[in-house]
Amino acid sequence: MKMWTNKPGIGNPTFIIAEIGINHNGDIETAKKLIKAAKDAGCDAVKFQKRTIEIVYSEEELAKPRENPFGTTNGDLKRGLELSHDEYTEIDIYCRELDIVWFASPWDEQSVDFLETFNIPFYKIAAASLTDAGLIKRIIETGKPVILSTGMSELEEIDKAVELLSKTELLLLHCVSLYPPPHDKINLRAMQTLMERYNVPVGYSGHEQDTIISAVAVGMGAVAVERHFTLDREMWGSDHKASINPKEMKELVSNIRLTEKAFGTHELECLPEEVPIKEKLRRVDSI
């Protein structure tokens, strides 16, 4: 199931993803509010993150002290942020009711098996997982299209991941893994490098706190845009500060759709609407 096109423009709308991630804070009702807000803003999809805690994190990491709403250790926090199978079933039903796509980034092979029970349309490989050959191979086995984030990666690392995914329908997302990134670190021109080097569709995944850069990315050829999404940046949690709120998401979607309208065609001609102005302003027609 392909949701993005090779080229943005009229008839080929940019695929816009609201990255909910863990911004639901472990609460299914908050997750539903985020899904509804994303739908109302005009997003095409929402994305979550799925981890098998005991596989992704070591016992030492889970035992580290960390005060949080779920307890006093890092493990309490990580477990508290994970939604259950029943809660994902609610998400699946709710997204179908609202007619919005949902999918996720699995961080381990067991999480792929978990997500396969919902038959999600494609998988996102997070930048943190770009070098995880075992996870990538398990995702390939599903036969689903893949979105791969290139944040914090060297070209040689991306080369190896793309080679592994060579027989998979692939979308690359240019990303800078800073939360949020300064504007002078975003480097949108890297999208052109990805397009030319790999000859696959390329999009943009951003963590900045404005809505302009995403529209600029579309103007530079991004066929998909993913942005972290929150109800309120003042909520507790690690990702809210690098997210945009519902009002900003509506603005972002509007900016992207206006950008698409301005693409036009490759033809250059005097428009019929320009003729009266031409007749009024041209002094002579002697060339």
Break the fold down into its secondary structure elements and pairings.
Elements: E1 15-21, H1 28-41, E2 45-50, H2 53-56, H3 59-63, E3 65-68, E4 71-73, H4 74-81, H5 85-98, E5 101-106, H6 109-116, E6 123-125, H7 133-141, E7 146-149, H8 155-164, E8 170-175, H9 190-198, E9 202-206, H10 212-219, E10 224-228, H11 246-263, H12 275-281
Parallel strand pairs: 1-2, 1-10, 2-5, 6-7, 7-8, 8-9, 9-10
Antiparallel strand pairs: 3-4
Helix pairs in contact: 1-5, 1-11, 10-11
Describe the structure.
With 287 residues, this protein is an alpha/beta fold. The chain has a single domain, classed as Aldolase class I (TIM Barrel). It contains twelve helices and ten strands. It has helices at residues 28-41, 53-56, 59-63, 74-81, 85-98, 109-116, 133-141, 155-164, 190-198, 212-219, 246-263, 275-281; strands spanning 15-21, 45-50, 65-68, 71-73, 101-106, 123-125, 146-149, 170-175, 202-206, 224-228. The chain has an eight-stranded parallel beta sheet. The chain has a two-stranded antiparallel ribbon with strand order 3-4. Helix 1 (28-41) runs parallel beside helix 5, helix 1 runs parallel beside helix 11 and helix 10 runs parallel beside helix 11 (246-263). The longest helix is centred in the last third of the chain and has 18 residues, at 246-263. The protein is globular, with a radius of gyration of 21 Å. The model has no long low-confidence stretch (mean pLDDT 95).
